[in-house]
Design a protein that fits this description.
This protein has eight helices and 17 strands. The protein has 316 residues and is α/β, with parallel strands linked by helices. One zinc ion (ZN) binds next to helix 8. Pfam families: Rhodanese, Rhodanese_C, UPF0176_N. Its EC number is 1.14.-.-. Belongs to the TrhO family.
């Protein structure tokens, strides 16, 4: 039994002096021997840190002693300091990088005018109540499109996003305007991206926007694969995917042959971080395990240096 743990947490609350919070958090973590990643912004804090249980408990206690963080929820998880290469504490203009810090207003209660929070059970209640009125609830994926390739809510809308920044152009393109007078449930891995996304949608005239408290993770812990979720969950650590039960469906398709797979592989070109799904049979074929962009470039410049690299990679 490991005597170490990890905690994950975030809160949206105005921080007038993020640099001071950074110094305090950095010192606190160093003294307690914790490692991990902490992001601080004028909008709040988001972190994942790990270490000895006693030290993590002490960290939680001391962090909550700062008034703006006193109600912050900490999610405990297996793991420890060794899961992180180092301690990183950074100040950024936004807690989630949508690229529009000026469009996000935060007060002591969190993001102003965000989507209504739903507990996992309430997601089902909403869908049923709306169905009784003859109205469909739209599920709107708040992640990068790639993540949705292996798992998503059934019939979800998956915007064309390579990074979180792409949501702004997507929302402003008009292609989702038909949802503006419909109930929309936004969802993402742990809920933080939707805190902001749902408020950006509200700001753009989407009238009835919801978000799932705790995101897909909480929903999956509650309903496993017996609810409205389908497939595997992409995660930003060395595991890459997780499932909620052994019955999880494989909905991803091999980029080459179309066979079911949930395994992402890096484009074989060195320096390209594109992830693509390949089945076990196709993952070694050099002609195909290069992403489209790199293949096009190679046709123009056959001498381009590349490697046969095809290992799993992290992408945050
Ligand atoms: Zn294949
Ligand atoms: Zn590539």
């Amino acid at each position: 039994m490991s005597m170490s743990r990890i905690v994950l947490y975030y809160t949206f609350t105005p921080l007038p002096d993020p640099e001071a919070v950074k110094l305090w958090q950095h010192t606190l973590c160093r003294e307690l021997g914790l490692r991990g990643r902490i992001l601080i912004s004028p909008q709040g804090i988001n972190g994942t840190v790990g270490g000895e249980i006693k030290a993590v408990k002490q960290y939680v206690k001391q962090t909550r002693a700062y008034a703006p963080f006193k109600d912050m929820a900490f999610k405990w998880s297996e793991g420890g300091a060794e899961q992180f290469p180092r301690l990183s504490v950074k100040v950024r203009p936004e807690l989630v990088a949508f690229g529009v810090p000026e469009q996000v207003e935060v007060d002591a209660d969190g993001v102003v005018d965000g989507g209504k929070h739903l507990q996992p059970e309430e997601v089902h209640e909403l869908v049923e109540a709306k169905r009784a009125q003859g109205v469909d609830v739209a599920f709107f994926d708040g992640r990068n499109a790639m993540e949705a390739q292996i798992g998503r809510f059934k019939n979800a809308i998956v915007p064309e996003t390579e990074t979180t920044r792409d949501f702004i152009a997507e929302l402003d393109s008009g292609k989702y305007d038909h949802l503006k007078d419909q109930p929309v449930v936004t969802y993402c891995t742990g809920g933080i991206r939707c805190e902001v996304l749902s408020s950006l949608m509200r700001r753009r005239g989407f009238e009835e926007v919801y978000q799932i408290d705790g995101g897909i993770v909480r929903y999956g812990e509650t309903f496993g694969d017996d609810g409205l979720w389908e497939g595997e969950l992409y995660v930003f650590d060395s595991r890459m995917n997780t499932t909620f039960s052994p019955q999880a469906k494989t909905i991803g398709e091999c980029t080459h042959c179309g066979n079911p797979t949930s395994t992402f592989h890096n484009c074989m070109d060195r320096g390209c971080s594109t992830l693509q799904l390949y089945c076990e049979d196709c993952r070694h074929i050099p002609e195909t395990t290069r992403c489209e962009t790199c293949r096009a470039r190679l046709q123009q410049d056959p001498g381009h240096p590349n490697s046969g690299r095809l290992e799993k990679v992290r992408r945050g």
